[in-house]
Write a structure and sequence with these properties.
Chain A: Force generating protein of respiratory cilia. Produces force towards the minus ends of microtubules. Dynein has ATPase activity. Chain A: InterPro entries: DLC_sf, Dynein_light_chain_typ-1/2. The complex is a heterodimer of chains A (106) and B (701). The radius of gyration of chain A is 14 Å and the shape is globular. Helix content of chain A is 43%, strand content 30%. Chain A is of the alpha+beta class and 106 residues long. In chain A, strand 4 and strand 5 form a beta hairpin. Chain B is an alpha+beta fold and 701 residues long. Chain B is 25% helix and 27% strand. Chain B has a 4-stranded antiparallel beta sheet, with helices on one face. Chain B has a 4-stranded antiparallel beta sheet with strand order 5-6-7-8, with no helix packed on it. In chain B, a hairpin with a 3-residue loop joins strand 14 and strand 15. The chains are: A alpha+beta (106), B alpha+beta (701). The interface between A and B is medium-sized, with 35 and 20 residues.
């Protein structure tokens, strides 16, 4: 496992293009999507070492901006099954190894 | 000490006396002095040592004392410097006021500031008492005045009014006097009407939710990035090319926007949907029947079925015309193309091609008017909007359901190979090697033509000439002049599409191949009219005729030309239907079921599996008597048949379950795919045929 991840990291280093944010799945409207994406990028860059804080920042900001109850998960390896309000889901990759899922469900 | 005291006392009294005479102003209390004098005179007069010694005469001298109101303490000569005259001047008058006694009291003038403030404080306290007694009294000033006059008329009421009036007055200004009439003070209360309360509750629908799940792993992330990278590369390449295409698209969009300036076209789609909805509502029960109704009584009647009438399509313009051909659309299962013309030689008028949809039975989806009666019609299997039609005047044309021009897209002319006699049947073929569409047509002039549609025109090619080699008219010199037969129907083999059957007016059925232009592979003496291959079995075909019969034939394997074209063979099955048969059609779902329609308005459905001699269903379909049924077609997917008659009506009927029996699958068997189904159908038919072949004599009905 460790070797595999190392290889991936090496690959990531050699192909630096793969660090841009890549939306894997989303059903938000465009402006919400761009805002959320930028917020996630900012949060991840700011708290590169601490996923919890990054997620916290994302969640708090989304709560303020778009109301009610948002949930954010930031990590490198996990599986999930969630119920989200329609048009309030963003699932994206960033930095070549970080995956962020952000959804609203009150 | 006492003598000294006496001395002082007397001295004091003498002093007083003297001062009385001298400085009279200082003494105020004369009464005391006189009393003391009288009391003191009883004693001897004691002279003080420094008393003036005056003579008697001097003592009797009268001195005039003038008492003025001048203040003795006020200076008499105040000199002030006058800047004006630049010298000291004596002030003429001096202030003589002397304050003897001053005592500060606590009385205030009632109009002074302080007093007013006090009044205010007092006034507020009083208004609080008067509040509950407040009534609605707008003219406070008038009431005040009336109250102020001091004669409260009307007694308590007015007093109360005053109070109420005054109370708001004080409230409002806070500076006016409060003339509370203490005697006629009464409280007044009132309750306004409170609207009754009503509970209202509503529940809003929560925002819709959806589930989402995924796995986050390093390799998934990597893969996603790789994919995206590749896409980006591709899009970069494509950017150069779509530059031109986008221009075209924008041009097209321009055109579309221009044409849609007409209001009706914008509403078109909406209107269409609404029309369909209305139709669905109107014919709701029919729609329900079509979908769900199954004739329950079929369980009891083993060998009988029914046809349930569903929608009836009739068009104004088609009322005088007969339905000459019916064809289901291969792609859109609810669309049926119908051609209208006239079979009557004498009455030849215009024709129609109508496209009906089951979703809208009241008005055709699309229709084309033609100047000549349309005798036949076919819808292209791959391009379902291409319709080819053959006319009574011998020409053929192609229409497009999509491109709604008023007329045909292509139409052949007299020069272009038009038939000289009515075209009875047309059939589309597979696109040829050059991807051009082509179709066959057969007509009474004895020619079977292949028409190919090149870019902008139709090109024809004679395929076969129907000649009658045996019955050739003897010319005057004995030359055999080949007479041409009249082709009335043809059908292509489902699997081997180079093979086709031709039915002729003479009563022969020819089996032909595309390869041969003048020779037939085989000929059968049959009757005329419609010919239709069996869908499943590669060798069985059915024919029907005006001679009241429907016959089922088998095509022999060995084509021995030497045996002659006119070797009479017997049909495998033959059914007598009591009236001339207009059309016959095989069912798409079963190899043993077929339907036939007759001139007396009846429809027959046979299932060879169930009953080889009698129809499963014999039903009157036409509304009025004397309506001949001209065509019948099965719908490829739904259990429906569509029947056309000679009054321009198209009726759709649903087949009851008995009529649609397919071979039951064994329980537990794996689901059957297409090929196996076909095989089974063929086997089913084979069984029946084998019985028949062995006993051909029994086959006649």
């Amino acid at each position: 496992m460790a070797e595999v991840t190392e290889d991936k990291k090496v690959d990531a280093d050699s192909k630096r293009v793969h660090t841009y944010p890549l939306i894997r799945h989303s059903d938000m409207n465009d402006e919400m999507k761009t805002e959320a994406m930028e917020l996630c990028v900012t949060a991840c860059e700011k708290f590169a070492s601490n996923n919890e804080n990054a997620a916290k920042m994302i969640k708090d900001t989304m709560d303020k901006k778009f109301g009610a109850s948002w949930h954010a998960v930031v990590g490198e390896g996990y599986g999930f099954e969630i119920t989200h309000e329609v048009k309030n889901l963003l699932y994206m990759f960033f930095g070549g190894n970080m995956a962020i899922i952000l959804w609203k469900c009150s | 000490m006492p003598p000294k005291q006496v001395k002082s006392k007397t001295a004091a009294s003498v002093d007083r006396k003297r001062s009385k005479r001298g400085d009279g102003d200082d003494l105020t209390e004369m009464g005391d002095g006189t009393e003391q004098d009288d009391w003191m005179q009883a004693k001897t007069l004691v002279k003080p040592e420094d008393q003036l010694e005056l003579s008697e005469a001097e003592l009797k001298e009268e001195f005039t004392r003038i008492l003025t109101a001048n203040n003795p303490h006020a200076p008499q000569n105040i000199v002030r410097y006058s800047f004006k005259e630049r010298q000291y001047k004596q002030t003429s008058s001096v202030d003589q006021l002397a304050v003897h006694f001053a005592l500060d009291g606590n009385l205030l003038h009632k109009d002074s500031e302080e007093a007013k403030k006090q009044f205010n404080r007092m006034g507020l306290a009083e208004t609080k008492e008067a509040e509950p007694a407040e009534g609605a009294e707008p003219s406070a000033a008038a009431a005040e005045e009336s109250g102020g006059e001091g004669v409260p008329e009307g007694g308590a009421a007015e007093g109360g009014d005053e109070d109420a009036a005054l109370a708001p007055a004080t409230k409002a200004g806070g500076k006016e006097k409060k003339l509370t009439n203490q005697f006629n003070f009464s409280e007044r209360a009132s309750q306004t009407y409170n609207n009754p309360f009503r509970d209202r509750a509503t529940v809003t629908e929560p925002p819709p939710r959806a589930s989402f799940s995924s796995n986050v792993t390093q390799w998934e992330i990597y893969d996603a990035y790789q994919e995206d990278f590749e896409k980006q590369e591709k899009s970069k390449e494509k950017k150069v090319i779509p530059g031109r295409k986008e221009e075209e698209k924008s041009k097209k969009k321009f055109q579309i926007s221009e044409t849609s300036s007409d209001d009706i076209t914008r509403v078109e789609t909406a209107a269409k949907i609404v029309e369909r909805m209305v139709n669905q509502n109107t014919y709701d029960d029919i729609a329900q029947d079509f979908k769900y109704w199954e004739d329950v009584s079929d369980e009891f009647r083993d060998s009988e079925g029914t046809l349930l009438p569903l929608w009836k399509f009739s068009f104004e313009k088609a009322k005088k015309l007969a339905i000459t051909s019916v064809c289901w659309n291969p792609k859109y299962r609810d669309l049926v193309a119908v051609s209208c013309g006239s079979y009557d030689f004498m009455k030849q008028g215009s024709g129609l091609i109508i496209l009906w949809t089951m979703k809208n039975p009241s008005f055709p989806e699309c229709f084309f008017e033609t100047d000549s009666g349309v005798m036949c019609l076919d819808v292209h299997p791959q391009h379902p909007h291409w319709i080819c039609a053959g006319f009574y005047d011998g020409s053929v044309a192609i229409f497009s359901a999509v491109d709604k021009r008023d007329g045909a897209i292509h139409r052949c002319t007299a020069k272009n190979g038009k038939h000289t006699d009515p075209v009875w049947q047309v059939r589309w073929q597979k696109d040829d090697a050059d991807n051009n569409m082509n179709f066959y047509s057969i007509s009474s002039d004895g020619r079977i033509c292949l028409w190919t549609i090149l870019k902008n025109e139709m090109v024809y090619q004679d395929v076969i000439h129907l000649s009658l080699p045996d019955i050739s008219a003897e010319g005057p010199d004995g030359i055999k002049v080949a007479t041409t037969g009249c082709g009335t129907a043809f059908d292509f083999h489902k699997q081997k599409d180079y093979l086709f059957l031709v039915g002729t007016e003479e009563g022969k059925v020819h089996i032909c191949s595309k390869a041969y232009t003048s020779h037939f592979i085989d000929t059968i003496d049959a009757h005329n009219m419609a010919v239709c291959w069996n869908r499943f079995h590669p060798k069985i075909f059915i024919t029907c005729s005006a001679d009241w019969t429907v016959k089922i034939w088998e095509m022999k394997d060995t084509m021995d030309k030497s045996e002659g074209a006119d070797e009479t063979r017997k049909p495998l099955f033959s059914f007598d239907l009591n009236n001339s048969v207009g059309d016959v059609a095989w069912a798409p779902y079963s190899s043993t079921v077929f339907a036939a329609v007759t001139s007396d308005g009846k429809a027959f459905v046979y299932d060879l599996n169930a009953n080889k001699y009698e129809p499963l269903c014999e039903q009157m379909v036409a509304q009025k008597k004397k309506t001949k049924l001209t065509h019948v077609e099965f719908n490829p997917t739904y259990p429906i048949v569509v029947i056309g008659d000679d009054r321009g009506n198209v009726t759709s009927l649903k087949l009851s379950p008995n009529l649609r029996k397919m071979k039951a699958e064994k329980k537990g068997a794996p689901p059957v795919d297409e090929a196996t189904k076909v095989q089974r159908e063929i086997e089913k038919l084979e069984k029946i045929l084998s019985m028949v072949r062995n006993q051909p004599t029994e086959a006649t009905a």
